[in-house]
Amino acid sequence: MGEGFFSRGFRGRSRRQDTLLPPGQYLVDGFPVLSAGPTPRTSLEEWDFSVVGEIDEPKRWTWEEFQTLPSEEITTDIHCVTKWSKLGTRWEGVSVDTLLEGVETTAGYVTAFCDGDYTTNLPLEEVTGGKAWVAYAYDGAPLEPEHGGPARLLVPHLYFWKSAKWVRGLQLTSYDIPGFWESLGYHNYGDPWREQRYWGD
Amino acid sequence: MVAVRPRRLAWRLAEVVKVVPETPRTKSLVLEVTSWEGHKAGQHVDVRLTAEDGYQAQRSYSIASAPEDERLVLTVDRLEDGEVSPYLTDVLMKGDKLELRGPIGGYFAWEEGDGGPLFLVAGGSGVVPLMAMIRHRTAVGSDVPTRLLYSSRSYEEIIYRKEQEKLAARDGSVEVIHTLTRSRPEGWSGYHRRIDAEMLAELAWSPDENPLAFVCGPTPLVEAVGAALVDLGHDPAQVKTERFGATGG
Questions:
Q1: For an interface test with B, which of A42, A81, A82, A181 has the most B Cβ atoms less than 10 Å from its Cβ?
Q2: Strand stretches in chain B, DSSP E
Q3: pLDDT of residue B244
Q4: Which of A80, A145, B120, B196 is 20 to 30 Å apart from B230, CA to CA?
């Protein structure tokens, strides 16, 4: 649809800035917030992070233990399926590679689970090899609750709903289980460069 | 094994049948969409504009009409520095075509079968998807007790005010409560402050009645209302939120 169609009288903004953006995205300076329900409040005393599922020995860290893991600084562009993109965002967190160190698994998928019962699913190979982190700082400060603090998953090469807020752990699975938005019409994989926003894209 | 591949939400051309000014900043676009498969109240569509040189811009807009309505209606708030919304409110006119695809979003949605009581909280143009729910409720003759708490900057900026007044006047199970945050007409006896915990304690049903809450507006409002409802004892799973804000639309 739309071959040869144009919107009468529409010119749009300057084109220059959009060359770095995936199709259909536009730049924002702010940091919009999106979530399906109230922001959960989990105290750092209660917080833990675990790796469970298809592994011999589940792993678990308290907040204090998590802080002692080697962290990385990440500067990356992020792309939300609601069409805003933000360039050069600065994060600090623990690489998922670090969390999975020494884990032997036959699992091919992972489900990130979160406070507020949110889940999102990813192929295991999309969160390993330096592609994903559990981030607890943004722009040099502890991550705000409305942006997913204490900690959120950061998988910047996929649409940002895959970077689950308030993440509490990873479940390794041998098959792919669609998560929250993935069950509600959003694309199972979510590559912004292929504009995989919704089912069937 | 062959995986079932869901059908893609295709772009389609809608025709603008009418443009209805709602407030100084908002207009409703009444659209004729051939073979629209229907939607749930609360869902949105993606709109795509294409310039003559091929440049495109996309944004999401909530559907204002009930699934039962003959035409699809989007209500658009004009953002001063927006790229798409000023086109939709200032340039687009009857007879123009508009590219869209949808419906999108199955969580922030209400159908009669979901029951209630229904507690709707809106800030500004956040009322649009909630109005779709109210219109759906009316269209199917539902008597689910419904309360809309609606925060606007001023009386003139209340969207759908007359329709809400008429509905509340003839349907005892619908209540509309306004609060005005910046200016208010002389003699205004309603609330005139931002929505706060005290207001919610007065107006949200008791958590014992397990109301279904839908909250839509700018992020600070949604954050404050969501937190206050949870503090009042409401089950977070019964509080659904949707936001819009400084996203440049």
A1: A82
A2: 12-21, 26-32, 44-50, 56-62, 72-77, 97-104, 118-123, 146-152, 174-180, 212-218, 239-244
A3: 74
A4: A80
